[in-house]
Amino acid sequence: MGITFIPIVAAVGITFDYARVAISKSDLNSALDAAGLAAAGRLYEPKETLEVLAQGFLDQNLDDAPFMVGDKPLQILSKTDETLRVAARAKVRTTVMGLFGVQEVDLYSEAEFTRKVMGLELAMVLDTTGSMAGSKLSTMKTAAKDMLATLFGAQQSSEHLRVALVPFSDMVNVNATRPDWRGDRLDFSVDASVPPDSGDPFDRADQDARIRQHHYGTDWAWIDVTGEALYNGWNIDDHRYVERNGNGGVNYRTARIYDSAYTDEPFEFGTNKKGDRIVQGGKFVPCSHRNAKGCSYEPLRNDHLWLYAKLDAEWLGCVESRPIVDALGVTRDLDISVEPPNASDPDTLFVPSFHADGGGGGFHSYMTDRNEFGTGNGPKVPEDDMDRLSFLNKYYQADAKIDDDGGDGGPNRNCGRPVTPLTDDRQGLENDIDALQANYSTNIPEGLAWGWRMLDPQPPFTAALPYGTRDSQGVKWEKAIVLLTDGENWTDRRRYNSYGFHHEDRLTGPEGENDPAAAMDKRLAKLCERVKQAGKDQGGDGIRLYVIAFRMSGTAAQDLFKPCASEPSYFFDADSNEDLKLAFQRIASDLARLWISE
């Protein structure tokens, strides 16, 4: 009995040791897979750097392995632009087998990882507001370029990868200067030989024709160049002020003085002789007023590109949000829509931004506020801060110009760096990321809306493929957006953003909110759902929406931004610069389609 008992005990002990070895081998395989995936996401790095990175992941994942002893060395066996082969070794201390001279069992694991970006169109929607200045901005730039490195690998371009950049703050600058992946550039060409304000002063149609002749580039077709859209000129009212006495006195609202004239005839500049063109100064009076010496009947215009011409200034490329409710009172949500612009439906066109000149009360001021027609004396006209903001006369003075000390941007204030359309030019994308600057306030729905438009095949940007495209190589194309912000939607009553000024009620009226920021939150929530569903009715899978909340305090990150992401794992609450880099890397690895091939 005793003789047979010893082999039985030995057999049980050896079985126990083999179980420990099997468990440890499984642990080693899993840890090597995780380490290899992490390294394969950075194939652009040198082999030595990747070995250090992978070794760190391996050690971390095996830190609690119960039966392993000693070091677990990892080695990169081979590395190409698309593949990575790695191996790792470990030792397991035995129990009963040690009685038979086997103190340790060596383990070895090997795996190969293949990296390939399937068809991907990606829009990176990046917060460039003032709060991003400093280390936040520099970290974002580094993380964004690291993402490009992961996706492009060692290549400078890829036939199955296209990336767009949409920097946003108060507005989005759509005047892209870089060509898209097809080599097509936006065409906002102008004919300097035809000044836009050179049309017949008595004929609005002739003026419109000259304006269109000046703005002859093909992409002006989706811009409201002649003031037909609902909000073009909304801040600057051509019928709001008239001269009380015709002698330089205080201007008042039309309804207080000339109510009948307001309804019966337009207000014009008085001139010394009927038919004279306005070449210098003038007074706003109805042509029927006793102080009018004669009338030119020159129609006064307040549309934005016309006012840029009056100031001899260039529009840089920012646009306003399209109406939530159109001119007929119909709710259309055009601000968060990809409905293409159509000249026969002016509210679908995009209105060039124009920051009206203010004269106090904290509004942006870039023109003179005293005696608008330049005689050198006289009171501010008009007296009220809001009235001065809407005052049209100043743009018609003979020497109308932007003061040298008028602050940044003049009518282009709050307009940041332009977008980059879908491109496969890695170096160009990196250059555009490096050029980003942090300024102004936070308007997230406007940024995300333009990110969506970058991925939609309809105008204004048309470089995107149709939803659900499978190309001639059998590759199915997917669409994704990475939205990064470091703060909640914010504005104040003096802040002009793509939704205009607070007092216009573009947001508060339709949304039923007294707080425009809360209204923007509602726009964002509705937009997120639209983006995630985009293209599903056209054979696509929707747009994969990743959201990064960067160093945000309070509950907004969870309450507002987490539901915006396509799924919970696509939301990243990055509390530090290192967390931001990790978030970008995890997204890049997910998009890069890394898999274990052996």
Protein described:
The chain has 598 residues and is of the alpha/beta class. Among the domains are: 2-115, no CATH class; 158-181 and 447-578, no CATH class. 28% of the residues lie in helices and 15% in strands. The protein has helices at residues 2-40, 47-61, 135-152, 204-214, 254-257, 259-264, 304-310, 385-389, 426-434, 444-455, 508-511, 516-533, 556-561, 577-591; strands at residues 68-69, 74-79, 83-93, 104-115, 120-127, 161-168, 172-173, 241-243, 251-253, 267-270, 283-286, 318-319, 420-423, 478-485, 543-550, 571-574, 594-596. Residues 1-6, 238-283, 293-297 and 371-380 have low confidence and may be disordered. Residues 402-426 are annotated as: Disordered. This is VWA domain-containing protein. It comes from Futiania mangrovi.
Outline of the structure:
By secondary structure, the chain is of the alpha/beta class. It has 14 helices and 17 strands. Among the domains are: 114 residues, no CATH class; 156 residues, no CATH class.
Oligomerization state of this entry?
single chain
Number of helices: 14
Shape: elongated
Euclidean distance between termini CA atoms: 50 Å
Backbone structural class: alpha/beta
Major sheet strand order: 13-6-5-14-15-16
Strand content: 15-25%
> What is the radius of gyration computed over CA atoms, rounded to a whole number of angstroms?
32 Å
The major beta sheet can be summarized as: 6 strands, mixed
Organism: Futiania mangrovi
Pfam families: Tad
Domain Putative Flp pilus-assembly TadG-like N-terminal: 2-41
Protein name: VWA domain-containing protein
